[in-house]
Amino acid sequence: MYRRTVGDVMTEEVVTFRPDTPLQQVAALLDANDIVAAPVVDDDGAPVGVVSASDVLRHETGMPDPQGQNGNDERSWGKARARTAGTLMSSPVFTARADWTIPRAARELRRRHVKQLPVVGDDGLLTGIVTRSDLLDAFIRSDAEIRGEVERDVLGRILGLDEGTVAVEVRDGALTLRGHVPEPRLVPVVVGLCQGVDGVVAVNALLSVRPG
């Protein structure tokens, strides 16, 4: 059963900065593209940091953070005095790979306490960016999409059940299965496979064993 990956949901056309990009241009591009952060890349295209709108705000307030806290942190004060993306950016940069599963990327975002991850290839060069909203969108699927995948991939391709053996109903991501299966042991298998389909929030299996 196909599971969508970071490569399926990431944005490939990424706004990037160079280390010497002036701060004024950084702020203008973030605003023009309605984004909260963008990666900083080196001459080869490898990400070396990330500049966020909150970084720009720190600079504009002249304080290490918008609330003026961490005043004794020299690195924060240095960022507040920054004039380029390279001196303003957060580094090191945490990255993802296109072949990561959606749950793995979500766990990495949470573990790193960030809202987006630049995506790199085997050569370490930037190939895209994935955000929290990208990952959430992967689970917000129409009921028709979910029903089609369950009927086609779970019941048909994987389990080999005849069409019409199990009726599938989906409402707001909640799945109801009605029908018969050849053996009792298949009931938990069907439920487990359906729970693994992106977008499914619950499975109600009203299944019985087909009379011999």
Task: Give a written overview of the molecule.
- The protein has nine helices and eight strands.
- The relative contact order is 0.14.
- The protein has two domains: 6-137, CBS-domain (Roll); 143-209, Histidine-containing Protein, Chain: A (2-Layer Sandwich), CATH 3.30.1340.30.
- It is an alpha/beta fold and 212 residues long.
- Helix 9 links the parallel strand 7 and strand 8.
Average residue-wise pLDDT:
88
Give the name of the CATH superfamily of the largest domain.
CBS-domain
Top-tier CATH class of the largest domain: Alpha Beta
Distance between the termini: 29 Å
Radius of gyration: 24 Å
CATH topology of the largest domain, what is it called?
CBS-domain
Largest sheet: 3 strands, mixed
Number of helices: 9
The SS-based structural class is alpha/beta
Per the principal axes of the C-alpha atoms, what is the gross shape? elongated
DSSP E strands, number: 8
Element string (H = helix, E = strand): HHEEHHHEHEEHHEEHE
Order of strands in the sheet with most strands: 3-4-5
Q: What fraction of the residues are assigned to beta strands by DSSP?
A: 15-25%
Give a quick rundown of the structure.
By secondary structure, the protein is an alpha/beta fold. The chain is built from nine helices and eight strands.
Task: Please supply descriptive tags for the structure shown above.
single chain; 212 residues; alpha/beta; CBS-domain; Histidine-containing Protein, Chain: A; 3-stranded mixed sheet; 9 helices; 8 strands; elongated; CBS_dom_sf
